[in-house]
Amino acid sequence: MVEGRRELGEGEFWPEDLVGLEARSVEGGRLGVVVGVVAGLAQDRLVVDGAGSTFEVPFVDDLVPVVDVEQGFVEIVVLPGLIEP
User: SS in 3 state form for 38-74?
Assistant: First the structure.
């Protein structure tokens, strides 16, 4: 753990804590693994590697309603065109 970091608030995460989490659809299907976090001006994006293709998901509550670092997964609402290349 890095010393001197601020205490995180509800719904805040360090990027390195998200990398490696399994990405699942809200229905429970496996989508892939979070391999990165891209910082953005409007919102950050999760980079997910899903069986050979990579896609980005805006890291907002409406699209990523569940983040469970302890259990090792995030849930993603899959909208048409979100994960297809």
Answer: ECCCCCCEEEEEECCEEEEEECCCCCCCEEECCCCEE
